[in-house]
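Entry 14. Structure prediction run on the chain below.
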Amino acid sequence: MALDDTPASRLPKRLAWLLALLLTLLAVPPALAHKPSDSYLTLRVDETEIHGQWDIALRDLDYAIGLDDDQDGAITWRELRSHHTDIASYALARLALSADGQACPTRAVEHLVDDHSDGAYAVLRFTAACPGAAKVLTADYRLFFDVDPQHRGLLRLEHGGETRTAIFSAAAPLQRLELAEANPIRQFIDYTAHGVWHIWVGFDHLLFLISLLLPAVLIRVDRSWTGAERFRDAFWDVVKVVTAFTLAHSITLSLAALDVVQLPSRWIESAIAASVILAALNNLVVMAGASRWLFAFAFGLIHGFGFASVLADLGLPHNALLLALVAFNVGVELGQLAVVAVFLPLAWALRNQWIYRQGILAGGSLLVIALASIWLIERAFDLKLVA
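Output returned:
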């Protein structure tokens, strides 16, 4: 008997490989156990002078210019101090400020060090002198884009008692900022974009959600998985999980961002890693069954604190606190829905295939458990097991 090798018969296999590839790409990059590369730039504009503070991760500077002189894996204050001139030259050469089209030359005035939620940062304080009082400030930011295209620069601008924000990226290195008045629409767009970006690079959050969604297109019969018969059932299962996750993390994101509740960062990050393990383990040893939405809600509360730490590092403007909070959360939801929109049709098309039940559900869950276990050990014991 001839094997059916028509294009139609090959389609499920291609879809299976595509979904498996997406899950693998989420799970395998070792650096993704940690927060993506960000720097924090604060500019305070006073008439013709700009006072700046730039927090840059030591790990990023070490990769770019080398700070660990003795190669012992730890950057000491002595090593950092010996590279102050190098840090200032490297950073300020990649930031150009201008007022109404006229250049504002920068100079370093102080070097400090500070701790953020993801490690130690060099703090570079500088000033920039402008020819006159500016109406439009232009910032051209090029830090690390040549070595890390995913790097982001998070700008906090203070002028006339108001605070606004902007986000630099390799695709948008130039920001033109009107100093006359704050632009709430622009601010909303910036925080929404950062929310979308964070959920897309927040691989622990995505793996938790996808692990809970993988069984949505299946039903449990005699201790084994089989394909669901009605798309409506699978769709509402996804809706319940996503809604529960969204509601839960929105609650704790708001409470933490507004300083109502604060928990230690290491506890939160460790708990998020543990939640990924349990979500994937549930696909192998069913604990929640049809009540996976309860998993999503319970651990979504923890994930909300993780989102809040990112928003805190970004800097909430006091004059637009609610706007920034809502916009960031909207961005997270949009990014989340985009992932679900890709996942659900692929999973539904493959639900009756062996490769989905054994390769993607079982094999993918094992891969997720292994990776999340590394994250848990790293975060709980402050170790670095992978580069």
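Residues 1-9, 29-34 have pLDDT under 50 and may be disordered.
Filed with the rest of this week's runs.
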